[in-house]
Amino acid sequence: MAQDKLGPLYPLLAPAVRRLIDRVAVVKGYLHSVESAGIRATLEPGSDARLRLTAVPNPASDRVIGAVTRLLSRARGEIGAAPIQLGLRKGPPGSGVHVGGSFPMRRRPGPLETDALGVPTRFSRVHVVDATTFPAMPAAPPTLTVMANAFRIAEASCSS
Ligand SMILES: Cc1cc2nc3c(=O)[nH]c(=O)nc-3n(C[C@H](O)[C@H](O)[C@H](O)COP(=O)(O)OP(=O)(O)OC[C@H]3O[C@@H](n4cnc5c(N)ncnc54)[C@H](O)[C@@H]3O)c2cc1C
C-alpha cells in the first residue's frame, strides 16, 4: 500500500516508511445500518429469473466516519495514537460481514416483513430466525444477539 501511494518516491522513503509501519495499527470499524450503505434486492422475473443486488450508498456514512476520525484525533493524547487520514478506507457496500434486516420484524408487518416471531407476511408455519429479521443491524458484533433472538423465537413458537 505504501509503495502504491508513494510511487517513485518509495525507494527513497522506504526506511522511514518501515519505521512508521512498525508503529501503525490497523483498526476496522462497523457502521450501524442506519448510517451504512444498503443493498437493494430485485427479482427480475422470466424463464431465467435473476436476483439483482444493487448497492444503495448512504451519505450519512461519510459524515459518521469523519466524525469518528475527528474524535479519535482530538483524543490522541488520551489514547496515545492518532488516525492517519491517508490510510482511511471505506469498504464498498456489501463488503461488511454484519448483514441482516432483509425481512425486518414489525409489530404490523407488511410485504417482505416478518412479525415478532419471524413469520413472514402471508405465511403461518414458517419462522425466520436469523439476522434477516433484525429491524436494524448494530455496528457492534451481532452474533450473540442473533442467537438470543433465534432462541426467543424457537422457545415462543414451540410453547404456543
Ligand atoms: C469473516 C467473518 C467474521 C465475523 N466476525 C464476527 C465476530 O467476530 N463477531 C460477531 O458477532 N459476528 C461476526 N461476524 C458476523 C456473524 O458471523 C453474522 O452476523 C452471523 O453469523 C449471522 O448469523 P445468522 O444466523 O443471521 O446468519 P448465518 O450465520 O449466515 O446463518 C444462516 C444459515 O442459513 C443457511 N441457509 C442459507 N440459505 C438457506 C436455504 N435456502 N435453506 C437452508 N439453509 C439456508 C446458511 O447455510 C447458514 O448456515 C463475522 C462474519 C464473517 C463472515
Low-pLDDT parts are: none
Please tally the β strands and state the result: 2
Biggest pleated sheet: 2 strands, antiparallel
Fraction in beta strands: 5-15%
Instruction: Report the radius of gyration as a whole number of Å.
Output: 22 Å
Distance between the termini: 57 Å
Number of domains: 3
Note the run of SSEs as H and E: HHEEHHH
Spatial shape: elongated
Structure classification: alpha+beta
**Helical content, roughly?**
25-40%
Total of helices: 5
Small-molecule binders = flavin-adenine dinucleotide
Average pLDDT, all residues: 93
- The main sheet orders its strands as 1-2
Q: Can you walk me through this structure?
A:
The structure is a single chain. This protein has 160 residues and is of the alpha+beta class. It folds into three domains: 1-28, no CATH class; 31-91, no CATH class; 97-160, no CATH class. It is 33% helix and 9% strand. It contains five helices and two strands, in the order ααββααα. It has a two-stranded antiparallel ribbon with strand order 1-2. β1 (38-44) and β2 form a beta hairpin. The longest helix is centred in the last third of the chain and has 17 residues, at 143-159. It is elongated, with a radius of gyration of 22 Å.
